[in-house]
Amino acid sequence: MKRVKLKVAYDGTAYCGWQVQDNGETIEGVLNRELSRLLKEDIHVIGASRTDSGVHSLGNVCVFDTETRIPAEKIVYAINQRLPLDIRVIESTEVSPEFHPRHCRSVKTYEYRIWNDKFMNPTMRLYTKFCYYPIDVEKMRRAAVYLLGEHDFKSFCSVNTAVKSTVRTIYKIDIEKEGCLITIRIKGNGFLYNMVRIIAGSLLNVGMNLKKEESIKEMLEACDRQAAGPTAEACGLTMIGLQYIDGDDKAINSAQINHKNDIDTPDNVV
Length: 270
Hints:
Blueprint: E1 2-10, H1 27-39, E2 46-47, E3 56-66, H2 72-80, E4 87-95, E5 106-116, E6 129-131, H3 137-144, E7 149-152, E8 167-178, E9 181-188, H4 195-207, H5 215-222, E10 237-244, H6 250-264
């Protein structure tokens, strides 16, 4: 028996999220079915992030146990011949039997994209939130500084989220604008259900001058979902990937250095 780790990219438009459920096709369900057919075993993958319906990914991670003699690094080629075109395994490797994608410390990165123009670009409609109101990106950057560091993000997760703690750490937030495309990139040690989408909706309210920059600090302190902004549409969210932290903690140390620089020079948060 060996444990295989997969890095998976997918367009989530046609799927009811990652996790297997009764009401429709899911990424996990497709992987389970096609891996079982390929390896002629009953395969059940364990995912690192249970992305929601319509959310995309460039590098979600999952593992499964198998008796196959196929070398782990070759599975990527075999499984991609069976998967639909909107799902691709981009890497397969053998890992320790103790490795669990949700229990190992990691730095996770998400991006939320907004198309800001008078009219929607039809080629971007499945991958961005459309907003025709003028957006002040500089205000969004200054407001985002309040989210850096360790906080109780209860205001920024769906009501009745079943977790032991709503405390999370955000290491870095970049907000960039290129033409009509605004990208919010968030790096942290973990995210609550709908946390990134609620952060995006709250920052967008600031950018549209519906809220003051300081309102983000007030939202955090309230620890009340009603205090924060709306949950932005799923189509704008992409999970960029996970970086697992090794023994010398290089990944987390690098992120913390960036976080300190952002706090010292808030106007440079980009």
